[in-house]
Each structure stands twice: as structure tokens, then as C-alpha cells.
UniProtKB/TrEMBL annotation:
<dbReference type="GO" id="GO:0003824">
    <property type="term" value="F:catalytic activity"/>
</dbReference>
<feature type="domain" description="Amidase">
    <location>
        <begin position="333"/>
        <end position="693"/>
    </location>
</feature>
<dbReference type="InterPro" id="IPR020556">
    <property type="entry name" value="Amidase_CS"/>
</dbReference>
<comment type="similarity">
    <text>Belongs to the amidase family.</text>
</comment>
<feature type="domain" description="Ketopantoate reductase N-terminal">
    <location>
        <begin position="4"/>
        <end position="151"/>
    </location>
</feature>
<dbReference type="InterPro" id="IPR013332">
    <property type="entry name" value="KPR_N"/>
</dbReference>
<dbReference type="InterPro" id="IPR036291">
    <property type="entry name" value="NAD(P)-bd_dom_sf"/>
</dbReference>
<dbReference type="InterPro" id="IPR036928">
    <property type="entry name" value="AS_sf"/>
</dbReference>
<protein>
    <recommendedName>
        <fullName>2-dehydropantoate 2-reductase</fullName>
    </recommendedName>
</protein>
<dbReference type="InterPro" id="IPR000120">
    <property type="entry name" value="Amidase"/>
</dbReference>
<dbReference type="Pfam" id="PF01425">
    <property type="entry name" value="Amidase"/>
</dbReference>
<dbReference type="Pfam" id="PF02558">
    <property type="entry name" value="ApbA"/>
</dbReference>
<dbReference type="InterPro" id="IPR023631">
    <property type="entry name" value="Amidase_dom"/>
</dbReference>
Length: 704
């Protein structure tokens, strides 16, 4: 038979060589002039573990194709080059000539308009081959090779081709094989963003949920029954990963052709034809990362695969909790830095270039995107972090959700709230979507949700992290901080984005126990008992506990309310007057009360603040940290608005440290009888952030 092989690199060269060795009339066609010259001069050499041989056959450039082409035209180009080949073949096929596509991807829809459906036969191939050098192709294994008509018939031409092609078998469901390869190929695309081998990518436990989810996403779109091959079974995906890992571990082809295009040959991949037509979020994340690597914005490294795994968790775990405002696909970041491989979610009240600052308000969420990153976001990127998602929040961080936006739920008990206002950030960390997230805190908005969901919440000293590019609520009380899986993660991120430098805690810790907070009648008795039990554990471990009178901290309540009202009124008064319906009812009620507060009340509170703060700060003298409860109760079903009885007391233990500006951190200590988390709160002198984190890490270890 006569064959014209268009695309004589890896697969085309390997198949064409087998055909030529069998005595068929083969002409190789390739755009690589050096490859064409080498074939003409010395033949095409097949190397590798399967077998080694050389064939002599003519090779030409595409522009040397005859005006009329007869016989069988094998199209084996990369799928994104199919459009160009289709244009070349249009009107050039002789009367009985036809096309045999041996490609990855669903390219039939590209070829049929050019050559006609009756002139197209399709193959599925899973044989590993690589272009090594001009005139040399390596065959890495012998895998599944199938041929069939698109309509499922077993035609004479298919039977004739099967007699000449190596390793091939005839199928009546070639489309099913192509969709099976789409699923497997999508996993290969995902793995190609790293420098791991195919086998390792499929074998490592941390990436298995990602690979399974991608395969399921693609298979759900198949219009026919998808077919299995070489260990891949659409009905047993988990087992497939084991079998595919073993299959690829035994192949001389360790990395996919996609990886070689990205990392070795530095050329565009087949993503436009193979991945772009697919529906679903995960394949979109993969495509965007592939293109970022193609543009030189990223390099092939495991950090990219870690990011894809975080996206999978975002979709599977984060969205059901109402914690996700929007994913940020293929985020730009520094190629080096201490946070490379760290995915960070960001409360949607902080400027992220290219996204609106949503503020927990549906109108703002449709607003103009930010032009630049807030400084804290820029610092994250510079450190190499992937700012990968915007997290939900209570409207304007003012204590209540907008009625049109669902409140973030608690991963430990979705019947309860994740809290506010940084509830989305807290929920994503607690669910295991990411190890760290940014939040803001004006009266406890980091620490309260952290306590509700059982993660670490760190509010640094006022001013340590810039609040530029953050929607203010009360500027003199507002803080940017972190929610993290543990203290070490909080410390690691803080060290990367601020001037904080980690220190070691003293061997003998001394804590000032805020007895008045523990005895406060508003504190739930179970929380009080559990908190005391945690303190007893610390004492038994050698921590010195020294009781301190918490009255000076309680006194900050005299100024907290008037200050937050005065400053929130300054921020929101103009919009509230012009467009009150912009706000949800609960937020509007709070802001209306803020605007109605007499000016002299706010001014009086501001004047009284320095003396109150000075006395409160003195409580931390002589101890490594103050310790007390975080919230008077465990997570409720919904966040109580600030102007309700429950809302009025929610922040009584956290808000004092916003007034003083001193750093404070929450450490999970266990769960209540109902299975809801509770935590203790530590606070240190103003500016002693590094020291507080060191103490918190020690306390965390002792309570573990």
C-alpha cells in the first residue's frame, strides 16, 4: 500500500518506519528540514527497548507535497497543527485516497470539513514514542493501538489497513477509545506541569484525588461508552491509577510528549485542541497552567501540580461550604521564594489585580477589577505563593452576610457557621483546601472564625501588614492577618511577607491567665471548663500560670463601639445616603446606627483611648503572653449580627486587642461534647509578634 505520513516525528515516524519495513511505499513528510534531510541521507532509525532498525524511504517538506495525493494519507501531527494539515489536503486527494488520523485529541471535526467524512478513518494509539534527534525516533513500549470507522462499521479499508499497521486491532467503538484517551490524556496534561515522571504523578497519594477528578470530569462528557486500555478502565479509575503507574514505570518513555514540548523543546502543546474543547473547571485550570508555562511565566515543577491539587480541593471541598467567591486561575507569582508551592486563599475584601474587590456584596462583586495588587498580595506573589482563590466574607466585614449571598459553613459541622467576617478563609483552611489564607480583623474577624472551625488565627500587631488596598471598616482597628493549619504555617507566611523574623521561645514559659474572662458569666460553662482543662494541661507540662486582672482589657469596650461606629460612618456615610439599598438589611441597620452616633461620642472615645490602651498593655508585662478564651460560645448556626444580644458579646474577648493593636493568636484545643471546636487566645506586647508566634508554637505542641 502507498502511505504519505504527514508528521514524521514520534508517532508518525515510528508507525511509518514499521510500514516501510514491511515493504509498503512510504513517503515521510515533516516541517523539520533537518529531520527530512537526515532521513533522506541516512534513513529513519528506530531506537529503544522494543527493537532497533533503520528504514530507507523518501522524506519531503509539506510544501513539496504533490498537487494530487493518492493512497493513504496518515496524519500524525500534533493536534493543534491539524488545521494547517486540513488546509493542505483540501481538494488534493485522488479519487480513492483517504486520510488515516493517528493523533491524540478529537481531531475528526477539524479534518472532516476538508476531506469529507467518507474519506476519514481514525486510530487510537497509546504507544510511547519520542523524537530524539534528526533521523531518530525512540519507541518506548508496545501499547494499545486500535483502528475503526467513526460510524462503527468494519469496512474493507479498515481490514486492509489493519493487515499492514503494527500492533493494531480493529474496533467498532473507536470514538469510545478516543474519549478514554481524552480522560487519560487530561491526566497527562496535568502531570506535565511538573517535572515528575508519568508513573510518579499517577502513583503519589497526594495527587490521586486530582487525577481521579480530572478523569471523571472528562468521562462524564463522553457521548459514547468510553473504552479502557493498558490498565485504564473507566469503570475502575482508582485501580486504573495503579495499573497505569506500573505500565508507565516499565516504559522507556518516562515523561509525556506534553512535558517534552514544555520543558525540553520549548514549543506550544496540543492544549488548544485536546483540552480547550472540554467542559469543567479542572481541565480549564490545567489548560491555563500549561499556557502560563508556554508564556514563560512558570517552569515545570511540582509546585504547579500542588496548585492543581488545591484547585481540585477547592471545587470538591470549598464550594459546598459557600467559601469560594472565585478561583484565580494560573496566578502570576515569583518563580523563586520561600512560599513556592503554597496556595493561598484571600478574603474578597483585598485588592487582587484582575478581580473586583467583592466585599461580600453582590453589586461590588460585579464591579470593575482591581488594577493592582494590594501590597500584602504583592508580597505573597514575590515570595512565590500562589494566590489561587477569593474567599467569601460577611458584607463589608461588618458582622452580617448579605441576604443574597450564602454564609460560609463550618467544615466540622455544616449546620453551623464558619463565622465572620473571614469565614470563607477559615472554612477553606479547616476543610484542608489550603494550608493558609488571608483574612482581616477589626474586632475578631480572623480569630472568631478560626476558633469556630478549629484552625489557627493570627492577628498581628497593628500596622505590621499593610491595609492599603483593603476595604476599611474602622481604619484604626483594622488588621490584615492569616488563618493557618498550624502555628508554624502562620509563622512561615508572616516571615515571608513582613519584617517579622522568627525567634525561639524561652524554655520556661510564663502565661498571664485572664481570670476575669474565664469567670465571665457570659462565657458558656462548657467552654469555660474546657479552657480551664487546657490550662491545667499546660501547668502540668511545666508552664507557669500567673493570674492577671482582665478589667483593663474589659475597659476597652467603652471605646471600641463608639470608635468603630465613628470610623465606619466616615467610610460608608456617603454611599449609605446616596444608595441605602446597596447594602443588605443587617449591614444597613448597623451603618445607619453608626451614622446616627453623635460626633462627640466618637471624639470622646478617641480621646479616652490612649489611657485605656496604656493600662491594658501593662497586663502583658512580666509574662510571655496573656491567655484566655476566644469566643463566649461554640459556633452557632448563623453569625449573629452585631446589634443582637448574641452579636454584642461575640467579640468581647477578641475586640480588646484591636483597640490596643497588640498581636493575638488563637490555638485550637479540642472539641465540645457536640463536636464543635474551641480554642484559647494568646496575646503579647505590641510589636512582639515573633515572640508570640514562638510561644504559640510551644503551647500548640504541649496541647497536642
Amino acid at each position: 500500500m502507498k502511505f504519505t505520513v504527514i508528521g514524521s516525528g514520534a508517532i508518525g515516524g515510528m508507525i511509518g518506519a514499521h510500514l516501510a519495513r514491511k515493504g509498503n511505499d512510504v513517503t515521510f513528510v515533516d516541517v523539520d528540514a533537518a529531520h527530512v534531510a537526515a532521513i533522506n541521507e541516512s534513513g529513519l532509525r528506530i531506537t529503544g527497548p522494543v527493537e532497533e532498525f533503520t528504514v530507507r524511504a523518501p522524506a519531503i517538506l509539506p510544501e513539496q507535497l504533490p498537487e494530487v495525493i493518492d493512497g493513504v494519507v496518515i496524519v500524525a501531527v500534533k493536534s493543534h497543527h491539524t488545521y494547517g494539515v486540513a488546509d493542505q489536503l483540501r481538494g488534493r486527494l485522488a479519487g480513492d485516497a483517504f486520510v488515516l488520523s493517528i493523533q491524540n485529541g478529537l481531531t475528526a471535526d477539524i479534518l472532516i470539513p476538508a476531506v469529507g467524512a467518507d474519506r476519514l478513518v481514525v486510530c487510537f494509539i497509546n504507544i510511547g514514542a519520542d523524537y530524539m534527534a534528526p533521523g531518530e525516533v525512540m519507541q518506548g513500549n508496545v501499547g494499545t493501538f486500535r483502528i475503526g470507522e467513526l460510524d462503527g462499521t468494519i469496512s474493507e479499508r479498515v481490514i486492509a489497513l489493519a493487515a499492514e499497521l503494527p500492533y493494531v486491532e480493529i474496533t467498532d467503538n473507536i470514538v469510545g477509545y478516543l474519549w478514554g484517551k481524552e480522560a487519560y490524556g487530561s491526566m497527562l496534561f496535568a502531570g506535565a506541569v511538573s517535572d515528575l515522571s508519568i508513573a510518579d504523578t499517577l502513583d503519589l497519594a497526594e495527587y490521586r484525588p486530582l487525577m481521579l477528578a480530572i478523569a471523571r470530569e472528562v468521562l462524564a462528557q463522553s457521548p459514547v461508552t468510553p473504552m479502557g486500555f493498558d490498565g485504564f478502565d473507566p469503570d475502575d479509575l482508582e485501580g486504573s491509577l495503579d495499573r497505569l503507574a506500573a505500565f508507565n514505570r516499565g516504559s522507556a518513555k518516562s515523561h509525556s510528549g506534553i512535558y517534552r514540548d514544555l520543558a525540553v523543546r520549548k514549543r506550544p502543546t496540543e492544549v488548544a485542541v485536546q483540552i480547550d474543547p472540554l467542559a469543567g473547571p479542572l481541565t480549564k485550570y490545567v489548560a491555563d497552567l500549561i499556557r502560563a508555562i508556554e508564556r514563560g511565566e512558570r517552569v515545570n515543577e511540582v509546585a504547579n501540580l500542588d496548585l492543581l491539587a488545591a484547585y481540585e480541593r477547592l471545587e470538591r471541598l470549598g464550594r459546598p461550604l459557600n467559601a469560594v467567591v472565585a478561583p484565580l486561575s494560573a496566578p502570576k507569582r515569583g518563580l523563586k521564594g520561600p512560599l513556592v508551592g503554597t496556595a493561598v486563599a484571600v478574603k474578597d475584601i483585598i485588592d487582587v489585580a484582575g478581580s473586583p474587590r467583592g466585599n461580600g456584596n453582590p453589586i461590588d462583586m460585579r464591579g470593575e477589577p482591581a488594577v493592582t495588587d494590594a501590597p500584602v498580595i504583592a508580597a505573597l506573589r514575590q515570595a512565590g505563593a500562589d494566590v489561587f482563590a477569593l474567599a467569601s466574607l460577611l458584607e463589608y466585614a461588618a458582622g452580617a452576610p448579605h441576604p443574597d449571598l450564602p454564609e460560609a459553613r463550618n467544615p466540622l459541622d455544616p449546620a453551623t457557621t464558619a463565622g465572620g467576617s473571614s469565614g470563607g478563609s477559615a472554612a477553606l483552611v479547616a476543610a484542608g483546601v489550603c494550608s493558609v489564607a488571608l483574612g482581616t480583623d477589626t474586632g475578631g474577624s480572623i480569630r472568631i472564625p478560626a476558633a469556630y472551625v478549629g484552625v489557627v488565627g493570627f492577628k498581628p500587631s497593628w500596622g505590621l501588614l499593610s491595609v492599603e488596598g483593603v476595604t476599611p471598616l474602622a481604619p484604626s482597628l483594622d488588621h490584615v492577618g492569616v488563618l493557618a493549619a498550624d502555628v508554624h504555617e502562620a509563622e512561615r507566611v508572616m516571615a515571608a511577607i513582613s519584617d517579622l523574623r522568627p525567634v525561639a521561645a524561652r524554655e520556661q514559659l510564663r502565661l498571664g491567665v485572664l481570670r476575669g474572662q474565664l469567670d465571665d458569666p457570659r462565657l458558656d460553662p462548657e467552654i469555660a471548663r474546657l479552657t480551664q482543662k487546657a490550662l491545667d494541661c499546660l501547668a502540668a507540662a511545666g508552664v507557669v500560670l500567673e493570674e492577671r486582672d482582665s478589667t483593663p482589657l474589659s475597659a476597652t469596650d467603652e471605646v471600641f463601639g463608639p470608635i468603630i461606629h465613628a470610623e465606619a460612618a466616615t467610610v460608608h456615610a456617603e454611599r449609605l445616603a446616596a444608595d441605602p439599598e446597596h447594602y443588605g438589611e443587617a449591614t444597613r441597620r448597623l451603618l445607619t446606627a453608626a451614622v446616627a452616633q453623635p460626633r462627640e461620642v466618637g471624639e470622646g472615645a478617641a480621646a479616652a483611648r490612649p489611657a485605656i490602651v496604656a493600662e491594658a498593655l501593662s497586663l502583658a508585662e512580666g509574662v510571655d503572653a496573656l491567655v484566655g478564651p476566644v469566643v463566649p460560645y461554640a459556633a452557632p448556626a448563623l453569625t449573629p449580627p452585631m446589634d443582637t444580644p448574641e452579636g454584642e458579646i461575640e467579640g468581647i474577648f477578641t475586640a480588646p486587642y484591636n483597640v490596643t493593636g497588640q498581636p493575638s493568636i488563637t490555638i485550637p484545643c479540642g472539641v465540645t461534647a457536640a463536636g464543635l471546636p474551641f480554642a484559647i487566645q494568646l496575646a503579647a506586647p505590641l510589636g512582639a509578634d515573633a515572640e508570640l508566634l514562638a510561644v504559640a508554637a510551644r503551647i500548640e505542641a504541649l496541647l497536642a
